[in-house]
Task: structure prediction
Amino acid sequence: MRAKARLEELKQDIEALGKEQFSAGADMMQMLVFFQKDSDRRTEAEERRRREEREERREADRLEREERERIRNEVAEAAERRREHDI
Result:
């Protein structure tokens, strides 16, 4: 009778350990999912930052080109006026 009770006690201990192991595995899986989502979020933020920087550089380049073109046109117009004035 005592052996049977001890055997039942061991069986319950083994079941409890199995449940704890399953719980630990689930916790580990939750951590892995959390870290994956965090990594994805960081990657998206970095991509967004790079895209914004690229757009800012393009806009700055566009404005610089427009300014150079405006100056070139003004110089060309001034030269044309001087040429016409000299004639």
